[in-house]
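Two quick folds needed for the group meeting slides. Do the first one here.
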Amino acid sequence: MFPRPAPILGLVVLLLVAAAPARAQDRALASPGARRSLRAVEVAEPPSIDGVLDEPVWTAAEPATDFVQADPLEGQPATERTEVRVAFDHDFLYIAARCLDSDPSGVIVNEIRKDFVPREQDAFEVLLDTFLDRRNGFVFSTNAAGARADTQIANEGREVNTNWDAVWWVAAARNVEGWAAEFKIPFKTLRYEGGPGHDWGINFARRIRRKNEVTYWSPVSRAFSIFRASSEGDLTGLPPLNPGRNIRVKPFLLGGATRAVGGEAFDGNTTGGVDVKVGVTPSMALDLTVNPDFAQAEADEQQVNLTQFSLFFPEKREFFLENSGIFYFGDIPRNARQPSRFRPPEEDLLLFFSRRIGLTESGEQLPLHGGVRLTGRAGAYGLGLMTMQGEAFGARPGENYTVARVRRDVLANSDIGAIIVSRDASGRADDFNRVYGVDANFRFVRYFNVNGFAARSDTPGERRNQATGKLAVGWEDSLKRLQASVMHIGEGFRDDLGFVRRTGVLRTFFDWAWMPQPERLRRRGIRQVQPHARVFSYYNPSSDIVSRTGHAGVQITWNNGAIFEYAFEPRTEAITTPFRLRPDIAPIPVGRYDWRQHLFIVETDHSRAFSGSLRFTSGGFWSGTQRNAQASLLYRPNSRLVFDAGIQVSDIALEAPAEQFTTTLVNLRSGYAFNTNMFLDSLLQYRTDVKQFSANIRFNLIHRPLSDLFVVYNDQQYPDRDIAAGRAVVVKYTHMFAF
């Protein structure tokens, strides 16, 4: 019998009491009943996309002005003026942004590569909500050097896909008044309802990095970002739109040579395939892939695992990343206000994790015949269906991987949905795993959230509890965060296409943070002092504690974005099965372990040419002690070149078993952007415990929109062993045809 967690109902009452001051604060921001509106104008002659706003349309069009701060002084006027105008012709949407600046020399640019990081420099962003559902949209970003970043969002940023790529153009130029940018976005790049009389949602954001100031045209609470579509304004005046056929065919050719570690010769490989995208309806896309290959995907960063669980490695393959938000179902991560280079994922259960398709546990690629994906919207419904068929590989049979997802919008900003996830081994009727689930996400009075799910797996021969479920409530506004959740995972629950850390547990989670930004501290260089606390607790079916991690600390954020955090973390672990921290040491014995550790985090201003980060943990560790340090140094001498060196050192001393060891992991990332369409990147890594060196060097030329040439070199070797290094060279060419 699981223990009964502290009542979540009590927290609900507390959250509702907390709503009063937040609603008063909310009145300083735009409300849905008083949305800002901007009218787009038609142009007879398209403007030149050069960042110089000298065309007549940019003088005649109505400007969006009077931007409002979200940070540091929420609700106050922006300190620098921004003017945005929108125009269109038959095929394109044009956006011009004039970012005036009282100190043009202070504009910060430190990247020109594709999908740059807007928060680390001066940037301008556009949100387009093409269905006007106040939930989903596309975000296009640039900086004063004309770098490009595009993002697809779902459910107001609950799912963010930074790997979504679209055909569009942007140019920016500095001037004596500051800087300016011009966007050219094809209508067929976007999904929308065709026909006359359709308005879109729109918002604009500007970051003035030297002040660490974030402003919006349609005000957004400091608690959120431009992804908060419910805070957007309206774009009117658009013409009747016809999405057309919207067919894209993208064949690829791949050639290379590979030698496995310890191999004697290189094996050549030449292959090809094709990806096809068809606009089935204006809001629904069908994707087909034949003989897909992901040899150009970025290599995984190695990790040191000092736990009894599998490590989490993110998905990096393009086909699975596009429109991935529709399939999201599981433990929804908390809103991260400050970026951190050391923020590990906190998911305990992801019901669908696409990395399980066509990849082994070690990240090796399994061959796939191909697959089909259908994603999009049909009225109030979001729909997703994907099926992939794998080839037989050695003694491993071919497998079919399928996921089906439906989500229905309800109320103003809420949804309910269902999912089916399935893995079937070809030709084996008794070798399958299926998971069925339903979920609901509700938001009330702007900041109060309730979400949960229930799911069940179906695995042949499993007689134990195969159910899982979660209920969570939370309140998050500019000043505070209060959250609580309870999740149960049955001991027989199995999800072959998911990520599950533990089974047979009940997990409770409580989180509190207070985030004021008093003026007296800001004048002394401190933006925010944030005391916070959280605790994860796990119980087994006999009501015994399995694991507990507490965290009580304070985080200080300076005006320039630098961060210092100290936290005290009491921990409890009770294990019933011995496990090894490393293959070459004795296992941790069965028993209960209690210890305390101290955490220090320092991050300097990442907008500077030199910046650094440090995470240091010291204190107890199982039956002994630990000192664990992660450090990185980032050097960007200009906007084209970057060096990122990192080191992790884990010094562990145990009493039972009597073991002492030190593990060091070193990595060096470097990148050079020849221009906004050509890049050279490398990742070098070395681990002392396994004495393994690996290298991944990747050249990428975007020779036309959504068309690439990749040249990739991989190297893996063990310097202390007399065996041949594993090496591979791959050349991949893709070419996109649009109809």
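Then this one, please, same format:
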Amino acid sequence: MKKIKFVVTVTFIFSVLFLYCANQKIYDVVVYGGSSAGVIAAVQAARMGAAVVLIEPGTHLGGLTSGGLGKTDTGDKSVIGGLSRDFYQRLKKYYDDPKVWKFEKQSDYNGYSENEDAIWGFEPKVAEKIYEQMISEFNIRVLKGERLDLNNGVLVDQQRVKRIRMESGLVIRGKMFIDAAYEGDLMAKAGVSYIVGRESNITYGETLNGVQKNNAIYHQLKDGVDPYIIKGDPASGLLPGVHGGPPGEEGEGDHRVQAYCFRMCLTDVAENRVPFSKPDEYDESRYELLFRNFEAGEDGMPWLPGMMPNRKTDTNNRTGFSTDNINMNYDYPEADYETRERILKEHEIYQKGFMWTLANHQRVPEHIRSEVSRWGLAKDEFTDNGNWPHQLYIREARRMLGDYVMTENDCKRVRIVDDPVGLGSYNMDSHNTQRYVTEEGYARNEGDIQVSPQGGYLISYRSIIPKRNEIHNLLVPVCLSASHIAYGSIRMEPVFMILGQSAATAAVMALNEDLAVQDVDYGRLKEILLNDKQIVDLP
């Protein structure tokens, strides 16, 4: 018994000493959020000689890139450079080995080409493996399972973040900070200005922002879908997933954010397939709109499986009722952890129930049931989470309000910035933001926009740093300063990696020269970025 007490006492002492030492260390660069942007930011800072710590609230690195979005949204691939392209080149080298093609031949995957330097479709577990390798090459300290204390976790003094405290009590001190999380908690708790929701078109002189009823063409419910529990009876109440308020005026701003979903990794390989199961919390009424949409004439497959290596998919939303959980995420961006976990769980139950319904319910057309039944969750992915993705697709949460706000006019190159730190090129893409009842009494989706910028466009350095009168040692490459519709294009994972590298470069420059991030010499920054193979000029 004395020996046990001695061991417990020694363990406790060492734990206290570890926590004390950890709390006293001052890092050059603190990266909060192990997203794709966070990993790349940490790697870039470390290879520039900085002492770095990467903090991930969850247990996996890579965010959505390792969380199911393996069919990369790229746009113009030629504008992807630096460490972002290096990541996809590393993936290509991995798939160059015929031995890793377990469930199909290398030649059978149409996303693989011997003549390409990179590959843009990949398995989630492989993406995470590559990120872990990149981190290990620089011996970067990684703290997983550490969430920022949302009550009083950020200490700011003289416009500089001095330290952040985790829920566990761990205190991390740093000279420069990068918020690379999808939610922007560090940014917000540091007192940086931000917005949630859609601006009006008037705010920045745009045409695709705010309420977009006239553009509600894609991923739309069929005409005549009744939204009431008892058809034709408003007094019976609305079906789940439909809100009872007005949709708003065309082009008007509101609080709504585009819908979230999980990007499931599925397979049709029998030996690696886990059939869709019916959740214990299954509520059939949640899918009544789906049934009525089929009855109204929808015959398209309500999911989009983008193929990845080894007969796996990156599964996305398609048609008017699909994996996007419309109306159910408005509270997420500014919520506490308990509320976010509840929203995340609701999304998981909804989507699992949706897939089971498509595969099994008799009110689903037979040709759809037959096709969906061939598929299931990939048995060798997300093995610590029941083969379910560990990352919800937070398509949009907080967006910083910096001295420069990226808008539709930047994406269309009507306006050209003079301090670019990367390029975007993907569609100005917003998924639906609401499902409401029309004046005629039918269910309708609104918010889906898909407009191409017709090429690459420049992203301003000022859009990833706070206003000059706010915080001087913080960079924000994910929840950057952009309007809702411009963010819809910028928010692609390759771009987040590009901006993560540029943010880290500027952070180390500011650190070495004892400057505010707002005072970094752009000419010198551009020189370093170009030397590191970033692309910062229009094609």
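Slide caption for protein two: The mean pLDDT is 96.
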